[in-house]
Amino acid sequence: MRSVGLKVLKNKLSEYVRLAEGGEVVLVTDRDRVVAELRPPMERRPLAADALLADLVRRGILSPPLMVREGPPPRLPVAPTATILRELDADRGER
Question: In which domain, by residue range, is 16 found?
């Protein structure tokens, strides 16, 4: 386990990242106080929900989407446009 100050870390970041990639833990200090750790990434496991969905697709119970959209689905209006405009005019008339 190594220890490195912020200033030295800033100047030699890639060197310390390579050390962490190799399995070493690097303690980052600021004024002789440990403020962070650089360490190798933990093994990532797929989310349980993703595994369940993949299993359902594999078994033919569920089919994947034909098109994937970016962002959330579009929202439906909460009221007809005429109603919204009428209420807006009424609100403005009270001023």
Answer: 2-38
Q: How many CA atoms lie within 13 A of 21 on its CB side?
A: 6
Closest to 2 measured CA to CA, from 12, 16, 18: 16
Listed in sequence order, the residues at least 6 apart from 93 whose beta carbon sits closer than 8 Å to its beta carbon are none
Residue 79 lies in a domain: no
Q: Assess if residue 51 is contained within a domain.
A: no
Walk across the sheet containing 33-38 and list its strands.
2-5, 26-30, 33-38
- Summarised one tens digit per residue, pLDDT across range 70-81 is 888 778 878 888
| CA dihedral for 6, 9, 10, 11, sign (positive or negative) | positive
